[in-house]
Specification:
single chain; alpha/beta; Aspartate Aminotransferase, domain 2; Aspartate Aminotransferase, domain 1; 2 domains; seven-stranded mixed sheet; five-stranded mixed sheet; 39% helix; globular; binds pyridoxal-5'-phosphate
Length: 390
């Protein structure tokens, strides 16, 4: 089946739910067993059946099945947020004394998790330039390295790592590859065809798609890894609400058509901005100027609606504030992936080992599903305010 067909059907069992198209939302903590024998049997196989609410309900399992199909994996685990999914993936892999290699363009709270909770427990992290070659990765691997953590493209600065080449280097040393695949929504990048071992998504973004639920996923192609992930999630007390899983599952049904529009709008806005005098650079994997553009062209089948803009140097903070405060269609908020457009001023990105090459202020734009001409008109008026301000 083609992906669009899969997304309409994965995780559905109408014959098992009185013909209803969608799985019902099952609210359950307690699951009861009629006999001691059944109870004992369930204790032996808690990952393969309904056992207790924290292990998941039929709604969780339906969502997980659809996510696994989306990403091309065999098993997925739902978590209550995207960062929860990152944490679950990393905690499932490491123990005290281990080492992680993490791309320097990683989502900031992921770096804080590595430098905070994981460091406290004796796990060391080395950050590497997102454009590091496979040879460079080989030089950074240590005997105690457990995983290479990638985010391609980075969700703030958009460099695209060469995932297959890095994965080859990692696998030679028996090291696993974790990818934050949120930008592609799992639709425009098939992680397991490119060497990834654990694919994480903040399903909060494009999968949910409507800015109304927090949700995360980790997908794998290996039963043993799945067991480690599920037991880590259950052991750390994570429990993902069935209403949120339902919203995630519903989002998957329309993901492909939404993504096509996000892509189209994002490219229209990015191209328009690239021609403006106020703009130094557009950070978008589909632009040849984006580091890793060639890798994006080779490995991705599309682009989402999230990209960055670097303004020319010299615009004052009050001028940028005047530009942003007056926008009517681009709200400011720390997220993306919903149907509505967003803009975020982030000055300069936080970097640990690499030097950010631009002097001007950066904006991150999420192109929503609105009419792109209206979005451009909103930005045009914003740039007029930018120029008119001292
Ligand atoms: C790339 C990326 N990964 C993970 C997350 C974390 O997701 P959540 O906010 O659902 O915890 C985010 C959130 O912005 C993100 O942008």
């Amino acid at each position: 089946m083609k992906k669009d067909t899969t997304l309409g059907h994965a995780g559905r069992r109408p014959d098992k739910q009185q013909g209803m198209v969608n799985p019902p939302v099952c609210h359950a903590s307690t699951v009861t067993f009629p006999t001691v024998a059944e109870l004992r049997k369930a204790e032996k196989e808690p990952l393969d059946r309904l056992y207790y609410g924290r292990y998941g309900t039929p709604t969780t399992f339906a969502f997980e099945e659809a996510v696994a199909a989306l990403e091309g994996g065999t098993h997925a685990v739902a978590l209550p947020s995207g960062l929860g999914a990152v944490a679950c993936a990393l905690f499932a892999l490491v123990e005290a004394g281990d080492h992680l290699l993490v791309t320097d363009n990683v989502y900031l709270p992921t770096a804080r998790l590595c430098d905070g909770q994981l460091r406290r427990l004796g796990v060391e992290t080395t950050y590497f330039d997102p454009m590091t070659s496979a040879e460079g990765i080989r030089g950074l691997l240590r005997p105690e390295t457990k995983a290479v953590v990638l985010e391609a493209p980075g969700s703030v600065t958009f460099e695209v790592q060469d995932v297959p080449a890095i994965a080859e280097a990692a696998h030679e040393a028996g090291v696993l590859v974790v990818l934050d695949n949120t930008w592609s929504a799992g639709l425009y990048f098939q992680p397991f065809e490119h060497g990834v071992d654990l694919s994480v998504q903040a399903a909060t973004k494009y999968i949910v798609g409507h800015s109304d639920a927090m949700l995360g996923t980790v997908t794998v192609t290996d039963r043993k890894l799945f067991e480690r992930l599920r037991l880590t999630a259950v052991g750390m007390g994570y429990s993902t609400g069935p209403d949120d899983c339902y919203l995630g599952l519903r989002g998957i049904r329309s993901l492909s058509v939404r993504m096509a529009r996000h892509q189209e709008n994002g490219l229209k806005l990015a191209r328009w901005l690239a021609d403006r005098d106020e703009v130094e650079s557009v950070l978008h994997p589909a632009f040849p100027s984006c580091p890793g553009h060639e890798v994006w062209k080779r490995d991705f089948s599309g682009a989402s609606g999230l990209f960055g803009v670097v303004l020319k140097g010299g615009y004052s903070d009050p001028a940028i504030t005047a530009m942003l405060d007056g926008l009517e269609l681009h709200a400011m908020g720390y997220s993306w992936g919903g149907y509505e457009s967003l803009i975020l001023p982030f000055g300069k990105p936080v970097r640990r080992t690499t030097k950010w090459p631009f002097a001007g202020s950066c904006l991150r734009i999420h192109a929503g599903l609105e009419d792109p001409d209206d979005l451009i008109a909103d930005l045009e008026m914003g740039l007029e305010r930018l120029n008119a301000s001292p």
